[in-house]
Specification:
It comes from Sulfurisphaera javensis. InterPro entries: AAA+_ATPase, ABC_transporter-like_ATP-bd, ABC_transporter-like_CS, ABC_transporter_ATP-binding, P-loop_NTPase. Keywords: ATP-binding, Nucleotide-binding, Transport. Pfam families: ABC_tran (PF00005). With 293 residues, the chain is α/β, with parallel strands linked by helices. It has 2 domains: 5-219, Rossmann fold (3-Layer(aba) Sandwich), CATH 3.40.50; 225-277. The chain has helices spanning 45-52, 74-79, 95-106, 110-116, 132-143, 162-178, 190-196, 214-220, 233-239, 258-267, 280-287, and strands at residues 5-16, 19-30, 34-38, 60-65, 80-83, 150-154, 182-187, 199-204, 207-213, 226-230, 246-248, 251-254, 272-276. Strands 5-6-7-3-8-9 form a 6-stranded mixed sheet, with helices on both faces. A hairpin with a 2-residue loop joins strand 11 and strand 12. Bound molecules: adenosine-5'-triphosphate. Adenosine-5'-triphosphate is lined by residues 16, 21, 39, 41-47, 188.
Length: 293
Amino acid sequence: MEIYHVIELINVVKKFNEKPVLKGVTFIVTKNSITGFIGPNGAGKTTTIKILSGLLRKDGGIVRVLGEDPWDNPRVKERVSVIFTKLPYPPNDSVEEYLNDLNSIYHGDLKSLIKEFNLTEHLKKKISQLSSGQAQKIQLIAALIKNPELIIADEPTANLDPKARIEFYDLVKKLNKEYDVTFFISSHILSELEKVITHVVFINDGIVTAQGEINEVESVFNSEEIILLVKDKEKALEVLKKYNPVSEGAYIKIKGKLREIVDILDDNGIEILNVRKTSLDDVFRKLSGENNE
Ligand SMILES: Nc1ncnc2c1ncn2[C@@H]1O[C@H](COP(=O)(O)OP(=O)(O)OP(=O)(O)O)[C@@H](O)[C@H]1O
């Protein structure tokens, strides 16, 4: 399969009232990836997404979405669906009316979508009667009517409870796999995204601080320790010698694969009282300049 960049930004600048909000944003999104766009409040995620969606004009740099500048470009809009936290459609419409309206524009295969995603039971419901999770799933499925190559989602799970988030991301995975849709999803919640994304772009204060495949980015930070509290610290230090463990007060700091380390301790009958592994959240904090111990 041909691999190219579905999104490409080079040194993109955006100012509001002379104040730079994007200060030279550069990143790529690979075809067929599920890319997380991660950053704290005010980092510039929504601004970037509006530029990518052709809703906002950049002040400088290069933006390519499916190879073209998205600003004022109906060809790009045809091939990209954008979804937001809040549902943009009229709350008094039924699901059926909403989907039919969309379908009258794009002439997708609505019948198959309704069948495949079991929407029949929801069709007569008003949008306002749906739970946030149902509404967000319908928004995602509705995005497919266009048969898009790319779905851009700005904080799509911000209103959802953890269960609905998981369901939403399961659907994202399915669409990515079965419909070959590339996803670009912004969030400041990492715990759920971590399970679904293949790639990640970190943004902080209008600058991209890291990007790449999720494994690569994680491994860059694998120099960060697993922190262990065990019953027999001296014995643990001994059996974990090949990992060069460091004793720090009651704790052991160690670099390596958590599973392996836990297995070794287990095999040696050493009880683990507490263990903490660096997660993407820690990576994020580090990249955002937060919590710089
Ligand atoms: N239309 C506007 N006029 C002036 N300033 C704006 C405008 N839109 C955004 N900003 C400012 O730009 C900065 C980045 O905002 P943006 O919404 O892109 O951040 P974000 O990463 O999406 O944040 P959040 O996670 O809170 O949604 C913020 O400081 C915001 O106040």
